[in-house]
Each structure stands twice: as C-alpha cells, then as structure tokens.
Request: fold
Amino acid sequence: MKRAVVLLSGGLDSATTLAIARRDGFEPFALSFAYGQRHNLELEAAKRVAAALNAHEHRIATIDLRVFGGSALTDEIAVPKNRDAKSADEIPITYVPARNTIFLSYALAWCEVLGAADIFIGANAIDYSGYPDCRPEFIAAFERLASVATKAGVEGTRFHIHAPLISMSKADIIRKGMELGVDFSQTHSCYDPASDGLACGQCDSCRLRLEGFRAVGLVDPIPYAAR
Amino acid sequence: MKRAVVLLSGGLDSATTLAIARRDGFEPFALSFAYGQRHNLELEAAKRVAAALNAHEHRIATIDLRVFGGSALTDEIAVPKNRDAKSADEIPITYVPARNTIFLSYALAWCEVLGAADIFIGANAIDYSGYPDCRPEFIAAFERLASVATKAGVEGTRFHIHAPLISMSKADIIRKGMELGVDFSQTHSCYDPASDGLACGQCDSCRLRLEGFRAVGLVDPIPYAAR
Reply:
C-alpha cells in the first residue's frame, strides 16, 4: 500500500478527504496542527476522525502561528457572524496568513521521512470562505515546489498534492462522505464555539456546513447553539 | 523604507544576508526559529546579530520539527565529522526535511501581516552541504508559490525571494560581510558544538567556514575545539 500524508483538521471536509485517500488505496498518515487556534475542539474531533477512519498513524505538530498575529482564528479579533459567506471576492479576517502553505510544508517534511510522495488536503474552491490558499493554482504551485524542495524530489520522486474536494459543492462533499462511511457527528467545523463546545451556527464555517446539509435534505447531526 | 523579512539563523551566511538587506535599503524584520535544533546556541547568536545589524524587529517562532524526525540536526543521530563537504552529489544526514520550505512559509506569513513583499534568505548553492532547498530552482519555485498562496498576492503583490548569496563562494560571502561591517565573532555556524559552546571544527558547517576564512587569508575570529 502506498503511504500518503492527509491533512486532518477534524472538520467535515478533511474527514471526507481522509475517507477518499483510503478509498483510493492509500495508507493514510493523518497530520493535524496545534497552532494556537481559538477553536481547539477541532483537535479532539481530529483524533476521533483519525481513529474512526483507520488512519495508520495520527500526529499533531505544535506550531506557533500566533507569533505574527493577523487573523481572527488565532488572535483576539472577533469572528464575523452571519456574513455573506459566498461573497468570495473579499478575503475575510478568519484567513490565517499562509496557513495552508505552512501546513503543506509540514506534510512534505513528513512525506520525506515516510518515503511518501502523496499528500491529501481538503481544500475547496467552491463553497469556501474566499481563502487564496484553497484555489487550484495554489495546489498546482505547491506541487511544483515539492519536487524541487526535497531530497526525494532531487532523487526523482514526483510529489502529488491531491485536493479531491477542490471543485465540489459542500452538498456534494457531504454526499461523498456519507457514501464512504464518514460519521459527520464526530466532526467539528465551527470557528467560534461556545464555552460548552457547541457550534455557533453563525460563522462562515457553520453557515456553509448547515447550507450543505440543507441542500442534501438532511439534518446536520452535530448540536448547535443556534441554527 | 520598504520592509523585508530576513531569515536569520545566527550563522555567517544569514548575518551577511541581513547586512545586504540593509544595504539595499530595506527595513529588516529578522526571523529565527526554535525548532528543536541540537545547536540552540545559534539562537543566541541570532539575537546578537539582529541587534548589532539594527534589525527593526527580531522574532523567534517556536516550531516543532522533531515531530517527524529524520535529521542529525534534530534527532539523536550523530553529526558526521570530517566528511568531504564538497561532495555535493550526496545529501547528508544533517539535511532537515523541507526545512527551508517551512522557514519560507513562516516568512511569507509574517510578510502578509507586515504588508511586506520581500524575503531574504542566505541560501547558497556553491560552498554548501548539498541541500536541495538551497538551489536556485527551489527559490524560484517558492517565489511563484508566494504570489498565488496569499491574500496580498491575489490583490496584486508580487513577492520577491532574495537569495543574494546563492552563487557566491564562502570566501566571497566573508569578503562581502566584512565590507558591510558584519562582526563574524558574533556568529555561530557549528552543527555540533561542545557542551561549553565551542565550535567543533569538524562538521560540514565548520569545515566550509574555516576553508572560507583560509581562502580570504584571515583567521576566523570565533574559538574552536579543534581546527
């Protein structure tokens, strides 16, 4: 079985991505980050999802993204509520500078140690929050970088960054996840959960998720403070 | 003055790079990493160099590169001594997987927060240890990535990764640093210093440095356990 590193946030998208990596015959090595996010509950969700979907291994890298500030997800900046999440022209304050670049760099490091050439990321350019590092051109640029950046690349390995959700709607992602046996009750997507862990139902991430379940004609199995 | 993020390890190359950024009219924001390196003395050297060369600010990001292992610089693997450091065909065990990719990703994140579009890195492809992420094609690939990876890039910023040492010999770097007032007695290059902090004189990094000073006809001002 070919090994692959799978970025796993604990949300709906990355859980589905992990299931797709399994379906495609890869042995998944799941990678999460403790990066000073306000919503640390997602790491607990990542652990549940990694176990449920039989990740071969799950590592959590502790990295400091607060050192520079500049995002509502890591700083004392309010997470916007009930924003029109589809106005993708505007990049919201929940954008964490260069986050996916940093995450993929770590995935690349682990690939080298594992002798793997495949990375899976749940980036999505359709029902997303307008983040630049979720676009196909970003994925393609990182793929080109990986092969010149590494010892394995110099020795002939061609890295492949799989972003299987990139052109899917949130509804399609939910359908695909269910087809592959993902238990969405184990996932966590909210940017700004209440102190009791309940999803807020009003941040971009909750709204996109709720709209996705509505479009599929299902009720999201996780509890919300408001929906 | 235009702002630039300068990667600063505390070694001879990055100190010279910081001096070049200053000479070129940039306001330097120096960035170092506590990444679990065995030779933590380099962070003390980085602080001295940042202060001596008037970095506008100096931040140290704590990141975990030990989480994957795979390098003599972060693991309990012996650092090779008296190796033929110029046999650049072979990539040595001191290579840290994807290290410069990770470092540049962090520099890019700080750029976005600072509104900067310039990054300086002391990568060198001549008198170097054979690391893939010190080559011009790596620098060019990261530059292309930066502009598609970021909010600033989407909004039209063109990032520039400056690697002013990339084609210089170690002797040329030393000459350039002295011309720009770098005090090399404040720098630290050894991969495997003794417990009292003395440079070993036998690892790749020490040997390249000592050869460079010899080629210039000078004595390296730092003390060595053996040379």
Summary: The mean pLDDT of chain B is 89.
